[in-house]
Design brief:
Layout (H helix, E strand, L loop, with lengths): L13 H12 L10 H12 L1 H4 L1 H12 L13 H13 L3 E5 L7 E6 L6 E7 L18 E5 L3 E5 L3 H20 L7 E7 L9 H5 L2 H7 L2 E5 L29 H4 L18 H10 L23 H10 L5 H8 L10 H10 L26 E6 L7 H14 L2
Parallel strand pairs: 3-6, 3-7
Antiparallel strand pairs: 1-2, 2-6, 4-5, 5-8
Helix pairs in contact: 2-14, 4-6, 5-6, 6-14
Amino acid sequence: MEKPTDPSGVDVNRREFLQGAMAASAVVAMGDRVPAALERLQVEAVVAQIPKQHAATVKALQDWIALPSIAAENRNYPQGPEYMAKLAREAGFQQVELMPTKAGQAGVFATLDAGAKTWLAVYFMYDVKQFDPAEWTSPPLEARIVDKPGFGKVVVGRGAENSKGPQMALLAALHAFKGAQAKLPVNLVLVCEGQEEIGSPDFKEIVFAPRVAAALTKCIGIVIPGGSQAPDGSVQIELGAKGVVELELVSTGEKWGRGPKKDVHSSLEAQVDSPVWHLVQALNTLVKEDGHTPAVEGFFDKVRPMTPQETRILDAALPKFNEADIKKSLGVSHWYKDEPFKVSQARLVSQPTINVEGLVAGYTGPGGGGAHAPDEYWVVESSNPKVAGMDGAVRSFVELFFAMV
């Protein structure tokens, strides 16, 4: 991985940093291999620890879910980063420190030097999205274990899947090495932030700190624990991201100079200007009449078409997708313009969009309506032979670490 550039005058975001690290990992050799028989014995000894620590792993995940750090609300800071640092120490990281940020939502930097030849970076986020308990089938901070048809026993809670479940699986893999008294075959650098859900505004303060940048330059790449698996057992490797820009539009009579400066009865719209309708009209100018295609001038000027190689990758992946399952999971019956699945997937991976993530106006209390977010869950005991539960996820990290030898 290239040495991070001096941050002076450089606007580097988390995605650019991760993409660069992942690209570097694809071209660096792994080094000499341990004899296969010895490696297999080591793997088996570590893997044998996974079911022994299963209950402790699930309990650790539940405890972590019970402490939500929400950057948008500045909730549970510094408790969140302090707890993350505790988890890192318990997993075996020798050097662990909090990394202050301007907003006061600290990151965590840690290193685990096992004396191995190879260094690997790990990205974590300890913050989670906001939640409305009324929209959940069970309290989002209780992390209840429930039966989910087609999957088995799952933990339901805010952060279970994004991203405490998969991150706990990686930490549990390190505990498995400790339990087996086995030497980790790779050294680790952990970089963790607490602002991912608000766009990582201070992430560069963490990764450009001299001691963090120096540690990252030794790494062959970076791992981002993720936990997405379809009911048929299939998984995907993501090769990149389109990125995102978020903004908030606010229309008020007070700032506009027209319309009411306080709450008034809706019947008075006959006499006064409506800030809400002006907001709707403004949003309407962002897309064309189909309600979908971006209408902003120059929006597509720098959008490059898919390369032949990218097209081949997509073509090879399509037969592995189950279109019906994807539609069911999304709760949709049609793709945009009833396009064929292949065209729709190409649009998904290559085309930018303009979307409304949320729209609030007027009174939204009892009697009103709103969107209901689905539960967030993490499979801990799978009843589906094609779906890996918590232990399967832990094992995947054990085997990944051995692959670094």
